[in-house]
Amino acid sequence: MNSNNVSLAVPFTRDSNIELASPLYLGDMSFGALSGVPNIAIACAAEKMGVIAGTGEGGLLKEVANISRITVQWASARFGVDSATLSKGQAVIIKIGQGAKPGIGGHLPGVKVTEPISQTRRIPVGKDAISPAPHHDIYSIEDLGQRILALREATGKPVLVKVGATNYVSYIASGIARMGASGIIIDGAGAGTGAAPSVVKDNVGIPIELAVSSVDSALKKEGLRDKFTVIAAGRVSTPEDSLKLIALGADITSLGTAALISLGCIMVHKCHLGYCPAVLTNKIAPNQAKVLSLEQSVQWLCNLVQGWNEEMRLLLQSVGLEHINDLRGRRDLLRYSESLNPETLEILGLSAEQLRGSGIQRRQDNDLSMSFLGGEKTNPQDQQIWTARRLTMLREVAGTVGKSPGEAQISSMGTTAPPLVEEPMRISDYLVSDGAQVTRPSIDPYREEIETVTFLAGGALRLSSPFFFTHLPAYVPPEVRVVFAKVASRIGLLCDLKEDDDGDETKYQPMKKYAERIISDYSENESKLGDIISFPLERYISEGRAKKILSDLRKKGKTLYLRCFSFSTKRDLDDLRNIAWENDLGRIFSGIILDEDSGNIPLEISVPLLDRELRSRNLRDRVNLLAESNSIRGSDDIFKVLALGADAVGIGQAALLAIGFEEGKNVVFDSAKSSERLENFALALQRDIKLLAGAAGLSSISSSLVGNKELLRSVNLDPKLRKQLNVKPAGAP
Question: What is the residue-averaged pLDDT of the chain?
Fold first, then answer.
């Protein structure tokens, strides 16, 4: 069979007469995010090649509006949208969410809001254009149905809905289909963007493969699949990716970053700054110093589509298919590597017999090999926990480098974070958070208040945020510890010293003024104690005077916590069970401090285990659970450990790196500058946590996030380990 005889033609939607020459959608990139010429080139290339292009939010260039093979986006801010704009092109896209930032709105930084953008979007020059997180006229699937009907009647065009791939995407897709939409665009986790908070881009949403497979299965089960178009977007990097997604159940795949690379993108990941070296995402001025050649750009994009099509034809030919439609849902043609666990295979709809190299015979012995999450994994111990990406983020938010201290880091393009690109270093790297869309409204962190205050010890301790500074490594000198204690006191956090009694009282003297915010281990030497005392578990069990000592400390107004190492099995709870739980934990101690540095068991395992134990004994509301580690790397780890059951999370080494203090580095220590940077770091952590909470639809951390494991999904995590965490696998209903 000649590959030229393989047909790639597909209908755009089943309820229209629009046919695509191949199943490609050139992704939604807005005027403003791109520099103008790329917007026109993408639309022109779609017209020439018989495919279709999305235009993103923010209005249309007149050159784009005059091209027929486009879709027009109707997003939450309604930037540049009117009846004339909606009448253009072939379809209307209701944008509920996108893969780079599910649960929060679009973001065009003020530096890129120039006069032309101001006029098109009808917004002030130089001001950030941040779309609302929810559509304020869509708070339910019924509201969405009304909007679908209204837009269809107003324009006479098909209406599709774009969402990010999140926990409940199969339910969302089913609701969209039932409400009369012509199709759905599912944007997978870590998809490209012109600007997004890094913490959201790297930690919210599920991979597109899992989303497409679960949506396809759900729609088939409910009898909704045949007349409904599924477009898969996000991290579609090669023609093989397109065919694999179609085999998993998609009709069409979207190319976004791939289109930019064909135009010369060199992946600097700084699109939001407006100074693109490839002139693709630079800010738009009335008189551009440099612009792309429109003619050349169109040619490059046409070459991309033509080459993409030819490779798809060759691959289809190799498995004996004459038409692209014959591939849809053909999971039997996929192969997978040993890195995929049985739960992931079940969600993808693959069988054990489809292991790559298993000897299963297909036509010409060929198939479509399933590459997922980077293929084979290396040993995580071979890599360091502090990646270049992580260090850059820490230092930017602290103000050690960069120009936006105390703010959430903004970045561009797709994610490079684990588990999709970088090797997972912690169990939390396999966990992703949810983004609220349609089934429940998100909380807009830019416009609505999200409560981060955390109360401990029955309300006696008030933390401004659900984290604190954990005990620092031994090499850290006293003057640095003083800075941590001072900042903790100033901004309403805690500072854990956890110092052995070495007889040197002088180094603790400067900290005594901050005693109300210091946690320290019990010592006979009271001169160094803070107002919060941690009592080691092993000492409590072995020392007969323990109860009397603790009783005396309580009479002096001290708040007491039981400190223990992190553990992994219920058997490890035996030492804790030696304590009369109902009496001692509820009466003597305000809570338990789980110390990962001492126990060497990940907090992701020990926290949910202890959380369940406390709940089973009806002690959870009386006993706080504090989890600390110098391997907690930032707000994402904090958020996930909170969701697994901790009330507050201790962070240490990350803060040191953020303010520029590293072991072995000969740096002159400036107390004032370090204090400022540490405050910036804490403020940025709080803002990141608000962004993650708002995206998930939470207005309060302590009442809605702590122990809310339903917000998390695991991506290809070993099933035995996943069950210990009591977290569902991504793509599961």
Answer: 90
Q: Which domain holds residue 555?
A: 410-420+450-689
- Is there a domain that residue 440 lies in? no
Read off the tokens for 560.
């007491």
Residue range 294-301: mean pLDDT, rounded: 98
Task: Give the Cα separation of 216 and 219 in Å (integer).
Answer: 5
| Mean pLDDT along residues 469-488 | 92
Report pLDDT digits (tens) over 593-605: 999 998 879 999 9
The candidate with the shortest Cα–Cα distance to 182, out of 222, 218, 216, 148, is 148
> DSSP H helical segments within 592-670, as ranges?
596-599, 603-616, 635-644, 653-658
Contacts of 331 (CB under 8 A, 6+ apart): 213, 247, 248, 348, 349, 350, 354
Report whether 97 contacts 187 (CB < 8 A). Answer: yes
The answer to whether 444 and 104 are in contact (CB under 8 A) is yes
Domain count, the chain: 2
Q: Using an 8 Å Cβ cutoff, are 319 and 71 in contact?
A: no
Q: 230 near 250, Cβ under 8 Å?
A: yes
| Chosen domain end from 325, 352, 370 | 325
Helices 37-49 and 294-318, packing angle to 10 deg: 40
**296: CB partners within 8 A, 6+ apart:** none
Enter the tokens of residue 391: 């260090």
Judge whether 343 lies within some domain.
no
pLDDT digits (tens, 9 = 90+) for 510-548: 888 899 999 988 887 766 678 999 999 888 888 888 889
* Average pLDDT for 388-406: 94
Check residue 379 and give its pLDDT.
37
Q: What CATH number is attached to the domain comprising 150?
A: 3.20.20.70
User: Is residue 565 helix, strand or coil?
Assistant: strand
Nearest by Cα to 34 from 66, 67, 63, 2: 63
Looking at this protein, which amino acid is placed at residue 640? K
Backbone angles phi, psi at 23, to 5 degrees: -80, 60
C-alpha pair distances (Å), 421 with each of 128, 341, 376, 415: 30, 18, 12, 8
Residue 312 lies in a domain: yes
Contact 232, 254 (CB under 8 A): yes
What is d(CA 517, CA 652) in angstroms, rounded to the nearest whole number? 16
Tokens standing for residue 322: 């004459």
pTM of the predicted model as reported, rounded to 2 decimal places: 0.94
With a cut of 70, say whether residue 506 has pLDDT above it.
Answer: no
Q: 672-703 pLDDT, tens per residue? A: 999 999 999 999 999 999 999 999 999 999 99
For residues 229 and 85, state if they share a domain: yes
Which pair of tokens denotes residue 531?
A: 């107002």
Note the pLDDT tens digit of each residue in 424-440: 999 999 999 999 998 88
* Burial (CB count within 10 angstroms: exposed 0-12, middle 13-18, buried 19+), residue 570: exposed
The whole-number pLDDT of residue 380 equals: 36
d(CA 256, CA 38): 11
Domain endpoint, select from 310, 325, 340 = 325
**Which residue from 727, 652, 705 is spatially nearest to 427, judged by alpha carbons?**
727
